[in-house]
């Protein structure tokens, strides 16, 4: 939560973590907690065909894409221009292996980011007026 909110809060330490991931992987893999749980259940139920490591991510985004989404959909948030600069990197590795086994993600980037804002408000991490 802190990493995705860092473009809103200006927390440089939390912001540097996804930026490092972008340097290594091209983009930041994100996933909704419910999809994580469902992926674990799916893997357990399909144990006979599962082996090796699986990257579990329903979306790959840059920190600039996160900042742009928040800026466009939450105008009450004030996003610093420096977070909107996007070097346009490509994803170096993805999560196709899990989908090839038949897993279907329920949540996309928009829902993940919206839920992140909603939960941050509930927890008092963002003391901004609710848009709903």
In brief, what are we looking at here?
InterPro entries: NAD(P)-bd_dom_sf (IPR036291). With 132 residues, this protein is mostly helical.
Q: Keyphrases for this structure?
A:
132 residues; mainly alpha; two-stranded antiparallel ribbon; 5% strand
Mean pLDDT: 87
- Large-scale geometry: globular
Proportion of strand residues = under 5%
Q: Which sheet architecture does the biggest sheet show? A: 2 strands, antiparallel
Low-pLDDT parts are none
State the share of residues found in helices, binned by percent.
Answer: 40-55%
Q: How many distinct helices?
A: 6
Order of helices and strands: HHEHEHHH
Number of strands: 2
**Helix- and strand-based class?**
mainly alpha
Radius of gyration: 16 Å
Distance between the termini: 20 Å
Could you give the order of strands across the largest sheet?
Answer: 1-2
InterPro entries: NAD(P)-bd_dom_sf
Q: Could you explain the architecture of this structure?
A:
The protein is mainly alpha-helical. Helix content is 50%, strand content 5%. α1 packs across α2. The longest helix has 15 residues. It is globular. The two termini are 20 Å apart. InterPro entries: NAD(P)-bd_dom_sf (IPR036291).
Topology of this protein?
Blueprint lengths: L1 H8 L2 H14 L2 E3 L2 H13 L13 E3 L1 H11 L22 H5 L8 H15 L9
Antiparallel strand pairs: 1-2
């Amino acid at each position: 939560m802190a990493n995705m909110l860092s473009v809103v809060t200006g927390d440089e330490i939390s912001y540097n973590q996804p930026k490092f991931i972008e340097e290594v992987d091209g983009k930041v893999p994100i996933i909704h907690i419910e999809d994580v749980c469902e992926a674990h259940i799916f893997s357990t139920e399909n144990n006979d065909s599962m082996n090796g490591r699986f990257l579990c991510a329903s979306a790959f985004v840059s920190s600039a894409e996160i900042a742009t989404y928040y800026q466009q959909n939450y105008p009450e948030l004030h996003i610093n221009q420096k977070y909107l600069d996007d070097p346009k990197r490509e994803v170096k590795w993805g999560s196709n292996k899990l989908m090839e086994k038949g897993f279907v993600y329920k949540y996309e980037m928009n829902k993940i980011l919206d839920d992140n804002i909603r939960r941050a408000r509930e927890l008092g991490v963002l003391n901004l007026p609710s848009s709903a």
